[in-house]
Write a structure and sequence with these properties.
- The chain is α/β, with parallel strands linked by helices and about 150 residues long.
- The chain has helices at about 15-25, 40-45, 75-85, 100-110, 120-140, and strands spanning about 5-10, 30-35, 60-65, 90-95, 115.
- The protein has a five-stranded parallel β-sheet with strand order 2-1-3-4-5, sandwiched between helices.
């Protein structure tokens, strides 16, 4: 029996989310893609709260995270993910339109695993999603989840 590979896509731009989902589906890169529309929803997903309280247990194979999102931006989401021992090893790929140097350097300073600038046209966009998805959701091996202390 194969393990279901999940991807968490945190993207507030409907067009970019639809293009990413179409490219992931085209290349069969994940069994399930869960979408968070802002940074608060991305954290709700990881912590199984709010509208994601009943989601299946376990972590996604990778988080595709946009930087410029409402309510809580991607940098703050990344900061919280990498500060929490249960998520520290979770691969996070910034998948963003930002080419701003402070965003790039800030993401790497916080421990991002990769920083990918989204191309504008669909064919290069799909190719970028294919490469990101194939590596992080198919080829990359995740460490085992951290052990919780026994009470």
């Amino acid at each position: 029996m194969s393990t279901i590979k999940r991807i968490l896509l945190a993207e507030d731009n409907t067009r970019d989310a639809e293009l990413t989902l179409a490219a992931l589906e085209q290349f069969h890169l994940a069994n399930v893609v869960d979408v968070a529309r802002d940074g608060v929803e991305a954290l709700d997903y990881l912590y199984c709260r709010g509208k994601f309280a009943a989601r299946p247990p376990g972590l996604p194979a990778v988080v595709l995270l946009d930087i410029k999102m409402p309510r809580l931006n991607g940098l703050e989401v990344l900061r919280q993910i990498k500060a929490d021992p249960q998520f520290k090893a979770l691969p996070v790929v910034m998948f963003t339109s930002s080419r701003e140097e402070p965003d790039l350097t800030g993401c790497y300073a916080l421990g991002v695993n990769a920083y990918v600038v989204k191309p504008v046209d669909f064919p290069p966009f799909a190719a970028a999603v294919k490469q990101v998805g194939a590596f992080w959701a198919i080829l990359n091996e995740l460490p085992p989840p951290p052990k919780t202390p026994q009470t």
